[in-house]
Amino acid sequence: MPIDTNGPLSFLGYTIRQRAAETELDTYWQVTNVPTRPLSIMAHLVTTDGIAVAVGDGLGVPIETWRPGDVIVQRHHLDTSQSDISGPYWLQTGGYWLDTMERWSITVHGQIVGNTLLLAEVSQ
Question: Is the pTM of this model over 0.90?
Answer without folding.
Answer: yes
